[in-house]
Structure formats: C-alpha cells, structure tokens
Amino acid sequence: MTISKKTFIGLGSVAMMASLTFGAGIAQAQDGQLRGNIRVVIGSTSTGGDTYQNSSIVVDKLAEHLDLNMKVDAVGASSAFRTLDRDSRGNTLMIFHDQSYLGHLYGVQGYSDIFEEYTVGPTVAINPGNAYLVPKNSPYETLDDIIAAAGNGETVRVAIQPGGVSEIGFSALKNAIAIEHPGMEDNLVAVNTGSQADKNQQLFDGQADVINGTVQANEQFTRLPEDDQKAMRFVWLTARQDTIEQAPEEGLGQTSREQLLEYVEPNVHVTMGDDETFTFDKEFFFLYNKDMDPGIVAQIDEALAEIYAEGEIQEVQKNAFFIPNFKPSGEASEYLYEKMSRYEEIIESIK
Amino acid sequence: MEFLSLLDITFFLLAGFGALIGIIFGAIPGMTATMAVAVCLPLTYALGLNHGLALLLGLYVGGISGGMVPAVLLNIPGTPSSITTTFDGYPMAQKGEGEKALRVCVIASLVGGLISAAVLFLFAPLLADFSIKFSYVEKFLIILLALTVIASLSSNMLIGIFSGVIGIWLSLIGDYSISDGGNGKTRLMFDFMEPFLFEGFSLLPVLIGIFGISTILLEAEKGVKSGLTNERVRIGKGVSANFSLSIFKGRLTNLVRSSFIGTFVGMLPGVGGSAASVLAYTQEKNLAKDSSQMGKGAPQGLIASESANNALTGGALIPLLSLGIPGDSTTAVLIGAFTLQGIQVGPLFIPENTETWYVMMTALVFANFVMFFLMFYAIKYIAKVVLVPKHILFPIIVMMCVVGAYAINYGIMFDVWTLLIFGILGYLIQKVGLEVAPLIIGFILGSQAEIYFVKSLESAGTLSIFFTKSPIAGVLWLLILASVMFSLMMSLKSRAKRRQELLG
C-alpha cells in the first residue's frame, strides 16, 4: 500500500511543532534534563504493530513519571533515523528493535552502524512472537523435517521480508543446513515479500512452503480447521525458552504457554555449530542522538528503573504479550553489541 | 441482542462527532481520513474499545466523504480517493452547479457506504475467502484495468497515454522498498537527491500541487477581474436549487455497480483506495449508454466516483475483520485500536468477538447517516466558499495546502517543495498540452503496478503467468480488452464525427 506508507499522519505533528517552539521557550533551562515536549519516533510506520504498541506502553509510563508531554510517532525507520540525526537537544528520542542493527548487517540502504552513529539506550521489552509457520496440511511436521528435506535436495521456499528481523531466522536455518548438510543450503530459498498479509498470501497461493510470521498475527490461523485454505501450523518460535517461560500461562488467544513452548529450543534445534542453538528475541530499546546530553541518558535510565521497580508496567506489558526486559543503557549497549556480533557471524558465513 | 446494552448516548455522540471531525479533515486539502484516525488513535485508550471504535469509524466515514467538498468546489481532491470527483464536480461548479454536484455526491456516498456495510455484515468471511484468491498476478491485472481509464479519459489518446506513462515514471522514483520485499535501493535519481527522495515523491503533496496550486497559477495568470471566485454559482433559489432525486433516475445501475466495485476494491489488501473510484469511473464511462458528457460535468461521473469511494469503507473492513489484514491505509491505522486494547484480529475475530462486531456495524451505519445529514443540510453554506473573493480565498487555499503538505509525513520540508514543484509542473503541463488526469492516475497506480508486476515474475519466473494463473486472471484480461476496445471505438467515433462536422 503505497499510500499507507507515504500518506502517514501528521496533524499532531503540526500542533506539536507549534507547541515545541512554545514549550521549549517557557521551559526552565536545566542542564542534562528532558524538557518541553518530547517526540518519540519509532522505526515502523504501522500503528497496528508491536513497535507502536510497546512504545506506547513505555512512553505513557515515562511521560507520567517525568511529568512531561511525550508522543509516539510512527514515522518508519529511515525517517526516524534522519529525525533523530537532526535533534541533539533530547526533544527527539527513538524506540526501535533489532532491525536497527540487522538492517546494517544485511547492508540495507538507509541503515548505519547504530553503535557508531547513535547512543544505544535502555532495553525495555521483548516480543517473543517471532515465528515460522507452514500450511496445516504441509508434509513438514517439524523444523527438522524442513532441514532434512533441504538436505535431501528438496527445494523449500520461505516467505520473508528481506533485510532484518524477518530474515534472521531464515539465515540461521540456512546456516544450520550448511552445517548439517554441507553444500545443500541453497535448497532453502527466500521468497522476498513485504507485509504479513503478503507472506500469508504466498502460503495461501502455494508460492511458499514456510512463512515468517508472529504468534500475535498468526495464532488465529493455526486454529482453523485443516480443510481451510488459510489454516496454518507453527513449526518454530525463535525466542529463547527462558523468554517464553516468562509469558502469561494462558499464552495468547487460545494457545497456551505450554503449547508455545513446544516450538522453541530445546524441542526445536537450529544449530549454530559447536552445540550452540540459534535463538532470537526481538528486543525493543531506545536510541539517542550521539551528541545528546549524557545527563538525559542517565535521567531516562533512572526513571525507567523506578518505573520497573514499581512493577506495574510489567503487568501491562505481559498482558500485551511482551516480556519485560529492562536493562539500563550501558548494560543494554554492551549486551546488544554482543548479540549483534553473534548474528554477524551467521550472516557472514552464509554469504 | 446483548450488544444493545453496550450502546449508550455517548456511543452515538462519539460516532456523530467523529463523522463531523472526519468531514472537516477530509475537506481540508492535505488532511486525510487516515490522519484523522491516527491523530485520535491514542484517545481509544481513555474511551475504551466500543466508544473508541465509534469515534474512529465516524472519522473514517466522515474523512472519506469530506474529500468531495474541495474536489467539487476547488478542483483539489481532499483525499486521494476523491480524485475522479474533480473530473465532473469542478466543471459543474464552474457552470454554477456546485451545490447540486455536492448533493449528488452526498447521496451517492450514503448509498455506497450503506451497500458496503450490508455486504460487510452479510458476507465478510465468505468474501475474505474469495479475496485471498487474488494473488500478485490478479492484483496487477486489476491495477492494469484501472489504468485503462487513461485511454478513455484523455481527449487525445496518444497524448493521454504519453502523460500516463510520464506519471508512472514519476511514481517509480525512490527506493524499491524492502517493506514491499524489494532491495531497498534507490533509482532514477542522483546521489545528492537521496536524502529527499529516498521514498519518492509523497502522493498527497503531488496531488494537491498538480491540482490545487496549478489551478491557482492558471487563475493568477488570468488576473483577478471578477472579484468573485465564481459569480455564476447561485445559492438558494438559483439553478442549483433545482436539485431533485430525479438526477438518479436511470442511474441506479451505475450507483449499485460503483458501490460494489468500491466494496470489492476495498476488500483487496494492497490495492489502494484511489483505484476504487478510478475503476468505478472507468466502468461507468465504458458501460453507460451516453458517457459523452463525462469529464465535462456529468452527475453520473460523480455518482460513480463518490459511491465507490465511500463503499471502500465497508470493503476495507472485510479483510481487517476476517483476516486481520487491513484493506487500505486508514484501516491499517484502525487496527491499532484493537492492538492497543489487546484484541487479536484474524480469521476468528468475528466469531470470538460477536459483540464488538455488532458494535462496529452499528457505528458504521450510524456514521453514514450522520455524514449524510450533516453534509446534505450544510451544503448550502459550504458551497458559499466559492463566493469568497479570489484574492482572499486563494491565499488561504495555498496556506492550507502548504500546511497539509508539511504535516503529511510529520513535518518534512521537502514535501512542501514537492507541492510547489508539482504545482509549477501542473501549470506547465497544461501549457504544453499534456493531460493532467492521466498523468496523476499513472502516478497513483504506477508504483503498485510495478510491485505486483515484479512480484508476479519473481514467483513464477515467466511472463505467461499473467495469462495462465487462474480463471480470475482470464476474466480480468477480458475486461481490460473490452475497456481498451471501447476507448478505441469511442475515439474513432468522435474523430469521424469531427471530420463530418468539418466537411459539413
């Protein structure tokens, strides 16, 4: 939908621009503190997606705690980075997830090294829902079947959105096939598509054997009767076992946590070599302008630590099927850098 | 009927209020229904799901209908889907029939909205199953069918097609976005343009520029002599008061057909809203007994365009509520209301949330009626806009256009330059004799056509897939052929007629 991408939203921003100038003027200057109106841009254009939902939860709490006016704007990755580049005062913050460095690793235009160009802020939550699905009547019962099939020379087509979170599981799978069945990894073929709707459609059309999806968006499809063209089945959730274990017991929709645990490691094993299993948690974190006052970084860390200590935000996040995961910026930056390095290896090795 | 207990006075007030605000958003060039819904989305937190949905659906219906006002009175489509409304609406307004044109539009909108709501209510799950039969190939063919309107719309077919191709070319500037499954690389530009044109020209600034700003430039060239924007517009007891329902006599097929086309296009995810009205307009042009006046101020064009674009509302909700997939850009925002409330939308949404489903239907139908009454009785006053002296009205329009363009992508200054560039381009285009309507239709549909074309080839690897994919593809080809043949015949006929006149 071209229009949806471009025609996105904005009266709010006009009002905001006006009030920004206004607000900044009357706010008491105090060094190293957030002031005036704060705009939090996110790397997705969708207001129906997990990034918007998660950011709203965090920003709402933060605004209340700091008694500031904060607003989440779904501007999309490249606009968000550019907006953040322009503002070192701290009136623009960004929330995004692993896509921010994966985009760079995959060499997508518009992405740079976030560890070089920006300050990595605190992590706030994990969306444990990154999943791979097959049609309900697929011959592949498990992910092992898929690895074995590709190893036997069968072509397996996987619908993904290239260049990021949607591709990383595919890359890991390809890497696993290369390790277990050397030379056969090219039998796993990526079908590059866009939105979740497009990926689903590829499955309905029989143009893909496996699709990348999410628990949130695809759970209802897994409950359709087998003779329904739209019926699907989970074969793999990329999240760590620990992560899913923290989800509410009732799971999501009619799929319980216990059922979800069937599709994660160690039940599903995607090797990275050396007995290591590939996992991927989609984590949300703040990104700041490199030149932003370190005082603000500390202020947000502190505020979030207090919010998380109160314990209420965790409930809200869990209700929305997010796993709370607060790490202050220093720790988060180190942790994410290490995480990136692991995925970098996988992406390099299948190039 | 348990859901009745969920409906209270606040519910109806919010739906009505939403419709009103939506109409205002839709009527201001540069502000769209999508924007209205997005701005009010966070309110659903405070309002709760049912009240929130009432407000958002009101905004949606109002926003789509509001676009007709500037389209008719000022030749600026208030929303992209009212572009075909300008073709006949503005000529009517120039003839002093602005009020009449608006009344036709309002009635067509109401009928379109209600028909699509009925279809949504009765057949949603069934149609969702049908809509997934449309893969990349069929979607490409639908857009191709909509593009054939270029041939019948242009006064000189060769120039029209040439303009359309330029429009498509302009739409390809920018990156082939990875969010569409592309490679994310930019093309058709120099490196220094990348920061501005990474995502290509934004649709709305282009639209407002090429229609609004260029119209104003053309007017400015004439100079302000009369003082009034349109002295011939008569309010009250004048010509325009002669509106009666008899305009719709013999137009029922058109009304119903266009409503169904709108619902149908809305139901296909990824085929944008503007395709609905363009397609309905093409079909009316091809199928009507006498379509010679279309484009010169014929009510039938308005009926086709407005019933189709309002029918989009019900249509776009079909895949949203029965597949969890938004049918257009506004429903893509609307889905946020559900996510924020923790409600899953997917194939089991309707059976699992029956009450919410009834609540939505009530809000949708009610919002359509509110829209109707608000607009139908306010038209008298709205139409007076054209009585404002030009030297006051035009600067205000320019200002609104600039604000709208700046706001559309959250304050990107380049969008304002886009507005001006395309304003001047629109002016020049008309000076050198190219045609604006085909160009803009090419621009709107071009990028989607490209994506579906490339994706079809990627998944099949052969061109023959376009002919052999499915029976649906076959039917679409027949429609495309019929549409092209018809335009050719029309053009030959009018050429013969002209020749005869010359000889005679």
UniProtKB/TrEMBL annotation, chain A:
Organism this protein belongs to: Halomonas heilongjiangensis
Signal peptide range: 1-29
Keywords: Signal
Record's protein name: ABC transporter substrate-binding protein
From TrEMBL, chain B:
Domain of life: Bacteria
Pfam families: TctA (PF01970)
Keyword Transmembrane set for record: yes
Annotated DUF112 domain residues: 13-441
Assigned keywords, A-Z: Membrane, Transmembrane, Transmembrane helix
TM region positions: 12-41, 53-73, 101-128, 140-170, 196-218, 259-281, 357-379, 391-408, 414-429, 436-454, 474-492
Name this polypeptide is given: DUF112 domain-containing protein
